[in-house]
What does this fold into?
Amino acid sequence: MTLKKTLQIISIALFVSLESTLAGADSIIVQSSTSTKNSGLYDHILPIVKEQTGITVNVVAVGTGQAIKNAQRCDGDVLLVHAKSSDEKFVAKGYGVKRSDLMYNDFIIVGP
It folds into this structure.
């Protein structure tokens, strides 16, 4: 799968996961891990979100633990981090409404 196709799929998944949050909003805050920010994902998809919805997405990129704490204080509309068990606890404790898998990593060890 090409990078462009992968980014399109991620963009669609992000739109679907944000659907209820986006309704009637002018802007939203995404609490995110720094690794997602550093990947360049937001640089690619946020202009598309703005163009297609008119909504400004403000990203707060911090460590996963801090992003979760920020979201628990209601300092964000969406939580996008990479700690599945922490995400599940976040929703189970009533801080979040729904948890969805958005992306994952595969690591390959290459050697002789």
